[in-house]
Write a structure and sequence with these properties.
This protein has 137 residues and is α+β, with helices and mostly antiparallel strands. The protein contains three helices and six strands, in the order ββααβαβββ. α1 crosses α2. The protein is elongated. The two termini are 43 Å apart.
């Protein structure tokens, strides 16, 4: 490895690669960000446990490691404070969604997909969400 390259270790996969230290540094930050976003939108750069970060810019490789919060909304309701104070173990709360309706899958609070609850194949006592529709825009 020369003085102008650095070793990069993917902590999730343990795979390593080398990248140019000055790769993209002559670009303005907005340009590097735009290039990274373009690379992330390219299906060839979709994450895959068997793929290393080789071929990705250091900017887009860093974006892949940013944690996001994924949550699933099963429904909601509004209660008065009086009703809220009456809740106890065993109380039933009716939600705004029918049991047959798909659930909302949110990333950082933004709806990105719809899904349904499933039992996990490896452990039927655990449940997960099967994505049934990806939302665009």
């Amino acid at each position: 490895m020369s003085d102008d390259t650095a070793a990069v270790l993917n902590t999730d996969t343990g795979e390593g690669s080398s990248v140019s230290v000055d790769e993209g540094l002559d670009e303005k930050p907005a340009s590097r960000f735009d290039r990274a976003v373009e690379e992330l939108a390219d299906p060839a750069f979709r994450p895959n446990a068997s793929l290393s970060n080789a071929g990705r810019s250091t900017a887009s490789a860093a974006l892949w490691d940013i944690p996001v919060e994924l949550s699933v909304l099963i429904g909601s309701t509004q209660l008065s404070v009086a009703k809220l104070m009456e809740l106890e173990s065993g109380s039933l709360i009716e939600l705004s969604r029918k049991i047959t309706e798909p659930l909302d899958i949110l990333v950082n609070g933004r709806a990105v997909a719809k899904g349904e609850i499933v039992a996990m194949p490896d452990n039927p006592d655990d449940f997960g969400i099967r994505i049934t529709e990806m939302l665009r825009g």
